[in-house]
Amino acid sequence: MKGGRTPVQPGIHLLENSIQHYAWGSPTAFTTFLGIPNPEGTPMAELWMGAHPKAPSYVRLSDGERVPLGDLIERDPVSWLGAAAPRYGNVLPFLFKVLGVTQPLSIQAHPNKEQAREGFERENREGIPLDAPHRNYRDPNHKPEVICAVTPFWALRGFRSPGEIARRFTHPAFEPLEQAVRDLRIDPTPSGLSRFFRTLMTLEPQVKREVVTTASVAFRDHPEPEYQWLLRLADLYPGDIGALAPLYLNLVKLAPGEAMFLPAGELHAYLEGVGVELMANSDNVLRGGCTPKHVDVPELLRVLTFRGKDGVEVLSPREVAPGLWAYDLPTGEFALSCIEADDPVEVEVGSVEILVLLGDHAIFSWEGGTLELSRGQSVVVAAVVGRYEVSVEGRLYRASLPVA
């Protein structure tokens, strides 16, 4: 430690986290679920738990000094991350969040590892500053993610089947797309879907405004939720062609406890609700609409996966040990589980863990001591802890590394 201070012993420690105040955030969700006062009613969008340099979590020492979590891991990666530390470059490979969404986020997708590395290097060569508004790649990493609903959670995820898209766009409101719809019916393949989406995204600005305006009038009284979301998006982003996304992307409503995994290249948007989100430690986003931020259509088209399918796989947890429920995820960077039981739960620790309490109270006990949590608090657990027992009133959401 700097100045000769005693290093933090790897164990179980309270985290101090940052809140991101984006405009789409909720003025009430974090007070309700995390116990964070918000007398001014400021939109609170994301609570970040992890070691991302933009907003790292801190561990407070006994003398009051705050140490970034990433610094602690860097000094003793195996004790914190476990034996797999070298596989992850001796750094925490995930970022854990709580989201409070009251207005839809932008329609977006994330690159795979190869695309991210190539794009990051290319924009570096072009001399684009990392904080430039038109920069697409802010790091060389991919960003698979999972969202787990705390409240009913609305989202868009993945292209519908070409036949269903053509059906929904066969309407006089979409006259400028008539030929594109006809072509999609003739060629309902990924390449046909790609051409349809390219046509939609590259319409002249005036045509985009006219299509969105006409559709808003035509579907004003349509009862299906897809059309109600179209109206809401069109109201928030007048003339933005992204308002039509509920007709070409699958609309999903997750019940509390249900989750949805988002791989690279999958076009999606979060619309409304409170959830916990776990992702690879990256900030790369390619946007496709419903945003005042930079939209790079050619780059978005390059990273998207054009697999059309009606419906979305919804994940429910399975009990893997008494009181411990896990979600099956196809990724090597993170694992998501939750702890909920009337009796104390024994947990075997194989890697670093971050847990956040969405409930009233929790008590951790391990060989090194005990630690109490109140609503909204979070802890980091070092791999060397090996085992702990926890009693919880409510639910603990738990991010960790996959078991090898």
UniProtKB/TrEMBL annotation:
Its EC number is 5.3.1.8. One of its GO terms (cellular component) is cytosol. Binds 1 zinc ion per subunit. Zn(2+) binds at residues 108, 110, 145, 268. GO terms for biological process: carbohydrate metabolic process; GDP-mannose biosynthetic process. GO terms for molecular function: mannose-6-phosphate isomerase activity; zinc ion binding. Gene3D superfamilies: Jelly Rolls, Phosphomannose Isomerase, domain 2. Residues 15-160 form the Phosphomannose isomerase type I catalytic domain. Pfam families: PMI_typeI_cat. Belongs to the mannose-6-phosphate isomerase type 1 family. This is mannose-6-phosphate isomerase.
